[in-house]
Design goal:
This protein is α+β, with helices and mostly antiparallel strands and 152 residues long. It is 27% helix and 32% strand. The protein has a 7-stranded mixed sheet, with helices on both faces. Helix 2 links the parallel strand 4 and strand 5. The chain is globular, with a radius of gyration of 14 Å.
Length: 152
């Protein structure tokens, strides 16, 4: 498997983002989705990577540098294709993103996930994330769970 930067023009990236959108739409009302779009991948402050093999992008994730009175990084689009789950790929992507955040001296990492994504929540907890209040433009929502990890 090869680590690649996510290119918004790559059909494999477009396909995996469509897979993510279908999954999230099957779990939660579309109105709650605040997803990073393919077109936003090239924006400053976005670091997005994937693991690619002959099946295309099989795992991906991004960190977006944000400012809300202070700097933080927001984890977005963490995903592993169903046939590749249980192999540690989401942890590998998270470790790459957290390493990048450390290099960029981003002091805190935040994320929004859904309460139905139990395996994701366990991963985040195992990495040291704790629940927090909504941040940025998010508001309290029964379909959202907010977490953060201080990198100090």
């Amino acid at each position: 498997m090869q680590l690649v930067d996510l290119d918004p023009c790559d059909q494999d990236v477009i396909n995996v983002f469509a897979d993510i959108d279908r999954l999230i739409s099957s779990l939660y009302p579309v109105a709650t989705s605040q997803a990073l779009t393919v077109n936003e991948l090239g924006l400053p402050g976005v670091y997005a990577v994937g693991l690619k093999n002959q099946d295309g992008i099989v795992a991906c994730g991004a960190i977006v540098k944000q400012f809300d009175g202070s700097w933080y990084g927001e984890i977005r689009r963490l995903y592993v294709k169903p046939s590749y789950r249980g192999k540690g790929l989401s942890r590998r992507i998270m470790q790459i993103l957290l390493h990048h955040a450390g290099e960029e001296e981003i002091p805190i990492i935040k994320l929004e996930t859904g309460p139905k994504q139990i395996q994701s929540i366990h991963l985040y907890e195992n990495l040291g994330f704790v629940q927090c209040a909504p941040f940025g433009e998010y508001t309290e929502n029964p379909n959202s769970l907010f977490m953060e990890l201080a990198l100090s």
